[in-house]
Input
Amino acid sequence: MIRTASLTLFLGATWLLLSGHFDTKMLAFGAGSVVFVVVLAHRMGLVDAEGHPVQLSWKFPIYFIWLAWKVLLANLIVVREILRRKITVAPQLIQISCGQADELHQVIYANSITLTPGTVTMRLQDGEVIVHALTGELAADLQTGTMEQRVRKLTGEG
Output
């Protein structure tokens, strides 16, 4: 019930922000659209911990700011490698153990790796992540486990 109410509020706020209409007829159409989508999502079984992870809502902005900072730093590393006269790129595949308990948290971790420039998650299977890293510096940063610890904090596991 909490997830359904949260989804309704989220969709309603999104509709209101994107439409910008406040007259009665448009608000009624918006409310009808939101109710229709929520009922449809509920009947399809999409209103669950994976489809609408309410438990991540208040922690996500903090994680997003941290991830944006990591993306910026990784961008600087990639730009530095591009601008060097001598090519020092040393691509490598690394295997990292993923300690998150369920699939949603593992996917958040794998996607966070892929969002970071210079690294791409190639496979996520059985709690193991295989990553292609452009440089040894990027690979070493992943192997420290900082990103995994941040995802654990986000998901309440750590």
